[in-house]
Amino acid sequence: MGIHLDSMNGDDDGRVSKSSLVPAIAHPTPEDSFGVAVNIKYHVQFSPHFSPLKFELEQAFYATAESVRDTLIESCENVEQLCLYTKRWNETYLHFHKANPKQTYYLSMEYLQGRALLNAVGNLGLTDAYAAALNKLGYELEDIVERKFSPWEIVRHDIVYSVQFFGEVQGQSNGSRKWVNGEVLQALAYDIPIPGYGTKNTISLRIWDARAAAKDFDLYAFNDGHHERAAHLHSKASQICSILYPGDATEEGKLLRLKQQYFLCSASLQDIIARFKERQKDCNSIDWRDFPNKVAVQMNDTHPTLAIPKLMRLLMDVEGLGWDEAWSITSSSVAYTNHSVLPEALEKWPQSVLAKLLPRHMEIIAEIDKQFQALLHSKRPDLESRISDLQIIDGSNPEKVVIPMAHLCVISSHTVNGVAELHSNILKNELFSDFNSLWPNKFQNKTNGITPRRWLRFCSPELSTVITKWLRTDKWVTNLDLLQGLCKFADDKQLHKEWAAAKHANKARLANYVLEVTGIQIQEDQGNES
């Protein structure tokens, strides 16, 4: 069905009069700018973010994002029907489930992905269609994408895992260890769809929300006036996701930071194992030896280090594997990226705090440390004099025993990488020099880069058009080596002219923005045009 929003409040630029010419219809054909416009209009009317009687900038942003989500999520009957601009999220994961490839799981406390809306429409090849559609509705795409809202999280009510804290460890008659009692919260999954550029894939950024189970609300205590006590666990859950990196000067602050880190690791590892087992369902039994062939866990700095003892605990205490098999799987599946040699990237946590919050995991960390020391004794006795600089449990100050998380990462990972050649050399020759002498093939360099899609193709379309024209292909967007093809035109005056015109257009846009925001007028031609 379609309706006209003639009753919406307007402003002096006649935006509503333009908008009223566009009907509101769900599920348009996305290659048509009018179809995109009517779908945006549909979400203005029916998506419950704002009053349907208004069509202001924030509402336009949400409605546009909802329209893009339709394109990302909608499923086709078969993969062959998909074309580049109708790639589908659901089809991607159906394909992954059937093909059962090795997947990388990048664990990080934060993801700075930039403007999701501009990235999505650009990767889908729909920038022009959305720009034209929004123009029909009285808006500019450039204004929409700068809104600071996030409508992208899609709740997955069927993906919930229990996350335990505190408690105690009990020995079992069969020699196993069992973590009991303590505080149990729920991790609820939210997915953010991220489409690839020029591919059929739309993958997920999965994030987690902390909640208490409904049964943990004490209605009797609440009705007796003990409101805080009644919702005690609900309050604890809300603290985990309220502020990232809370102050850790106090023990309570340290506990909360570790809770955040473990919450991410626990939910993610349970999710990874569940997916691995689901894809092995057709087999008569689970072949855990295949786990490293299907799973790569990349730890971003030391914040997700607890993924190591968590994976060990799940494999041993839940899946019933022995230590040696669990260690072989874990050390073949996890890798560590170090971004900085600054202290904040090389966390050291008090053993007492870790043991209090995660008693079973502290046992596992202690055993990893014990076996590492045995390895040094048998293979590198020359390093035993430096054991205090290498071990995972640093007891050099008996009153303040700490766990250097970077040591746990290096010892447990199959690969350690820096993010620039100079940085990686510092890791190998200074920070982790003894580890490098023990495992010289473990350390690698992976130079950080920037995406040419965002920082050239999308943000400078004029310059991109010039490059594509002269190279006679747009494949340079995913293969920057092709830019070398411009060298043969280095002396071509026509290329110089077009290049300068593209840069001048960008400078003019910047000058207009500076004038609009600050009231300061700058000269567009100031500086070198080369």
Automatic annotation (TrEMBL):
Family indicated by similarity: Belongs to the glycogen phosphorylase family.
Entry function: Allosteric enzyme that catalyzes the rate-limiting step in glycogen catabolism, the phosphorolytic cleavage of glycogen to produce glucose-1-phosphate, and plays a central role in maintaining cellular and organismal glucose homeostasis.
Reactions performed catalytically: [(1->4)-alpha-D-glucosyl](n) + phosphate = [(1->4)-alpha-D-glucosyl](n-1) + alpha-D-glucose 1-phosphate
GO BP, sorted A to Z: glycogen catabolic process
Known cofactor(s): pyridoxal 5'-phosphate
Broadest EC class assigned to this enzyme: transferase
EC annotation from Swiss-Prot or TrEMBL: 2.4.1.1
Entry protein name: Alpha-1,4 glucan phosphorylase
Pfam family, one: Phosphorylase
UniProt xrefs under InterPro entries: Glyco_trans_35 (IPR000811)
Sample GO molecular function, one term: glycogen phosphorylase activity
Recorded GO CC terms: cytoplasm
UniProt KW keywords: Carbohydrate metabolism, Glycosyltransferase, Pyridoxal phosphate, Transferase
